Amino acid sequence: MAMVESLQRAIDFMEKHLLDSITIEEIAKQANISPFHFQRTFMILTDVTVGDYLRRRRLTLAAQELSSAQYKILDLASKYGYETPEAFSKAFRKQHGIAPSEVRKGTGKLQSYNRLMIQVNVKGAEPMNYKIVERDAFQVVGVKRECPCGEEANGSGIAKFWGEMNENGTADKLVQFINGEIKGILGITDNYNDEKNTVDYWIAAEHIGEVPDGMSSIDFPATKWVVFEVHGSAPIEIPNTWRRIYSEWIPSNGYEIAELAAVEVYIASDPYHPNASNEIWLAIK
């Protein structure tokens, strides 16, 4: 359960420094893991980004202080890291659904995001099917897009990217380029940007040979992978499997997660089918 304890230390650090300008490097240091690994773990276990969590908590505390009528809106905007009262009011309304001035009047309802407590239950009752694969270096080719994540996605993120690639024929074209060991279209998440709240997302395929026109490539180094089977409709079971990997499998096994992009492999022709079979590839060390 060391992972749970280290994540809680990082969360406690965030809570202690909610009024400070803290970086993801400082937060991840409390958990003794890299920013890359911390962001991925935090998002999978909590369904929010670190930036979203900090913003929600700050605006929750700001609402409590507004209710007490001890602070001016201008002072609270500065206290919680907003450059102008207008920026503060916009963020406040987005979270709570009402303006700060309405809180002063005692009208409307507020949303409280409470302090997060990580509790991971190592159940193990339901088996997870996986295999360990040693692979030499390999190349994938495809299309990359910087996608918003967390609260900022608003329908313009990864799902929209997949829709466009399916509609314009790029996904079908990638199928023709598959000639490596991984027999499926790949969804690859990499390079979380804390300031912009975005990730680099690739729709790609393993390909041996020259990079096709109009596409880019990623070279994965030789490493060890754990490959998890995912059965069921992908939009439901892929996220469920990720949560089980981080809440059950990792705490129960002696592997560390490598600093490589996560790979989802869409093998089924219809990933929405209730009997679809797909995979998650996670680099380990």
TrEMBL record:
One of its GO terms (molecular function) is DNA-binding transcription factor activity. PROSITE patterns: HTH_ARAC_FAMILY_1, HTH_ARAC_FAMILY_2. It comes from the Bacteria. Pfam families: Cass2, HTH_18. Residues 8-106 form the HTH araC/xylS-type domain. InterPro entries: AraC_E-bd (IPR010499), Cass2 (IPR029441), Homeodomain-like_sf (IPR009057), HTH_AraC (IPR018060), HTH_AraC-typ_CS (IPR018062), MarA-like (IPR050959), Reg_factor_effector_dom_sf (IPR011256), Tscrpt_reg_AraC-type_HTH (IPR020449). The keyword Lipid metabolism does not apply. Keywords: DNA-binding, Transcription, Transcription regulation. This is AraC family transcriptional regulator.
